[in-house]
Amino acid sequence: MSNPVIHIENLTKYYGKTIGVNDISFEVNRGEIFGFLGPNGAGKTTTIRLLLDMLRPTNGNIRIFGKEVKANSFEIRQKCGYLPGNFSAYGNLTGKEFLNLCADLRKISHHIESGLFDRFELSDTDINRKIKYLSHGMLQKLGIIQAFFHHPELLILDEPTIGLDPLMQEEFYDLLNEYQNKGCTIFFSSHNLSEVEKVCHRLAIIRKGELVKVESIENLKKKLNRKLKITLKQPVDNFILPGAQLQKQQGLTYEFLIEEDITSLLKKLSDLPLKDIVFPEPNLEDVFINFYKDQEDE
Q1: Given 10, 13, 145, 272, which is the most exposed site by the fewest CB atoms within 10 A?
Q2: How far apart are CA 164 and CA 172, in angstroms?
Q3: Is 187 domain-assigned?
Q4: Rounded to an integer, what distance in angstroms lies between the CA atom of residue 108 and that of residue 78?
Q5: Total domain count, the chain
Q6: Which of 2-11, 24-33, 107-116, 158-167 is the most confident on average?
């Protein structure tokens, strides 16, 4: 797709001799929820800080809304909403005072849609308490509101659901979809596999500062070998499944990795004394492990 909202080209950042990110390149298209996936220390937060001009790259180029970040930092950030990982705020301010400060810095009205407070169950009492007395979950909700309340064109979110209970997480996912439907582009950094799979269509996987894959989740799943788990009613002599590699056996339960077309395999299965069969669809956890297992082996 032409005219991406985020364009990153050969981006590298060193902290002294330590590599933060190394020669990464990818684009985020307008109106998509783009996942940025990797474990802690992989380079996710470094990339975000480079996007927001909080760090300057050692090498490479970043363009947002078609403009170079370094030369247009203020203008770009006016159009962005940002929720950092481990969000914190001025403890001696109340939640309302903090949000008013955010509005003043953006030179916009103090008015915030009441629906934002309602959907995250923040009452007037809650937002008039000093921030230092808020629970972790309450603080995270405040962080979400400050990122969304000005209707940004680009949302950059770093581990946004930390501290939220499951119901609030679902409310947050609904909010993401609403903003996407309005044309907002969302850069969603996380190491939570299930939520990335739930809300993102396309993602980048980063490992030790290097980009290992940029692809749609659907296509990544298609490229994985399927798994098969069967349990027999009774032992079978010379038990072999064509096109399947045995991964694990425990008693009469076998786990296989399917390497070829399943036609001949299904025919063989029909002749077996089956007690149970599980043939699951690959999920994002399988994708993630597939890209990280080589590192673990090393």
Answers
A1: 10
A2: 9
A3: yes
A4: 11
A5: 2
A6: 24-33
